[in-house]
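Section 5.1 Outputs to date
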Amino acid sequence: MTVAFRYAVRSDIGLTRANNQDSAYAGPHLLVVADGMGGHAGGDIASSVAIAHLAPLDDETPTADDAALALDTAVEEAHEELLDRVAEEPDLAGLGTTVTALLRTGDRLVLGHIGDSRAYLLRDEVMEQVTTDHTFVQFLVDSGKLAPDQAERHPQRSLLLRVLGDVDLAGGLDISVRKAEAGDRWLLCSDGLSGVVSASTLEATLKEHEAPGPCADALIDLALRGGGPDNVTCVVADVVELDDLPDGEAPGTAVQVAGAAAKDRNKPTRGGAGAAAKAASLAPRTSQTDLTEAPEGRKRFKVLRTILWILVILGVLGAAGFGVRMFYQWTQTRYYVAADGAVVAVYQGIPQQIGPWGLSHVAQTLDGIPMDSLTEVWQDRIERTVQVDSLEDGIELAERAHAESVAEKAGTTPAGSPSATPSPSADTSRSASPRPTPSASRSAPPSPSSSPSVTPSASRTATPSSTPSASSSTRPTTSPSTTSSRSAGAIISSVRSATPQEGPTASPSIDRPQPED
């Protein structure tokens, strides 16, 4: 079977934003949506940089493993560029972007995701959301503290826990691998669409339109009719079987770029027929009348409005403070093993920092286990941090690493050493990042002396519990019809080791600007 994409890209500035910070790309092998954030210019730069590093992947890739590695590497390089940009221009501090990318290799599709843009798959007339939002509200939903319908109206629904920006890229991309089937329709979109248009309406629209172009146009119009409070961007792509197409009807291969990464990035909104569009067309997007030049009546009105806005902001800050407090309390239930200077230590918290505030501290220093006593494999893993369930588990892991390292250097095998772990070359079902993540139930990490390969870790979609947790994934068969997902770390064991811990990893939260009323 020889499959291909037939695709269309659309992006609109929306009815209230002054500029478009979304970017999108579609080509024969690659589809991407990136939703930027971080001030007037920061979001534009972040999403454009992401597209610039991902666009070169729009070519044939030998295997799904290679495609997963390519996606992960491109995002790492984009992260490095964003860090360099902020170092050169401090005013850009706080910039970031989501990334949802679909890379085709043969009849396999490798999906990379970070942030709260989404990927939907319409197959056999049924639509499913393939990605999981990396937001604080989604964490509350997954842990059973918030109902899904409440999440749609939650004041912190735009608080991101993982993002590609000038913060540590902890967790990296969620990577999944799926089989491309003729007849599938994919939708990649920013939250300017999914946050305004209901899932049922999205599904009905994907079914209604035969070609991707009209379908993408209809989706943009729906968001604008809903008020267009944010930039709205989408990519609609159909998977087609080339051998079944009549002569002359093969899909086009021209690259389509939209939003901040496009040449027409300053293109005005297409508007809409709804009341919101008409109201927005009457209101200026930028300058405001200076109070000193306003009539006395308008001056009093503006003072009153300012007071009301202050009260609203104080209320929002109170809600935000509660959310941040809950988030910090959750971080203190996490532990990880890392280096503390020249020795190994167990830390409490997560290996992140928000501004000058760290989210972890040393719980116990293991002076009897110097880093240079470990093998290179263990040193590499511990330098990149290894998530564990508790202080005791961290101490146990460090002691085992030390025992195995001493035994390996001496050419012996320590008693009770775990057997070799399964090779990641077998298909593994999971949605995880290439980095270690905390788990709900601990399983022993792979012995670096037995095999440098990694064990399948658990899904990033947390199950309801009092703390973020994850259910262990099942190993699928290697049948081509089976949908499988795995992290880049599990796909290419030679690139990096990963701990077999389960569950979501949170990065420094970034608060996306809320849509203006």
